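Input sequence (291 aa), recorded before submission:
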Amino acid sequence: DILKPKNLLIELKNVAPFIVGFIIPVIIVFGYFLLSGGFEYFLRATFANNVGYVGYGNKFIIPQGLLILKLGILTVLLAFIFLKRNVLNHQTVFIYIWVLFSLFNAFFSQRPYTHYVLVAIPALCLLLGLVFLRHKTFMFNLIFLSITIVLLYLNFGFYRKTVFYYQNFISFMIGQKTVYQYQRFFDGNTPNDYELASYINRIAAKADNIFIWGNNAQVYKLTNKLPPGRYTVAYHITGYKDGISNTKEGLDKHKPKFIIIMNNVSEFPFSLLEYTQKMKVNGINIYEKVL
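Predicted structure, token format:
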């Protein structure tokens, strides 16, 4: 009956707000990059570069073969739900579809990063709710939930340090840890980032720019500065085709007041003729513009 013109029109009218709500943010984002002059890079980052990113772990016989297989499995399962739609209520069908698309999303790029699992949490919570309702589909829901959890557990690396974040915070608050010890809990380089940022904030004027040759983009945030080019870290500068040229163009144009060379990266690929070494902080060389 849904395929009858009148019923189809009613259904389209019902879903129209959702379609419009989905399209408006997309239009706004496209418009922003179009007006800001970065539309080409936006398209490249969101579409072209993602092909290679997704293809990294999805090769199976042919490039993207595993992704095609996963798409086929998703299609079969959706078709099964469609065939069983008359014996399921609308809420259950919605939850099943959401769970399947969430799993497809999590496994889309075939990379074991925990943040991909986050997209599945809302749908899994609803599926767990179905289990507790103990409807006639209780056993199916339980098996579906169990298989989903096992798949996610076996394919993703879960961070097990979370509880110790609270312990670290409490130890710091009651004076059992120094600031250095508190920062070092997160990463061995974290205290260096804060010390470096503190030094730059003391000696740099508000209008002074900096350039960091390293993989410490967080220092830009800590100093409220922007990099001279499009890329914030050395592995992007050396990894992208236009990384070196774009950064050199930015250095020539903005001429940052300070150039910071970290001690754990490759050789600095740009000229320091207009700079002199000002300070060395924990093996990090800081150069100041003198010409």
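Checked by second reader. Residues 228 and 253 are 8 Å apart (CA to CA).
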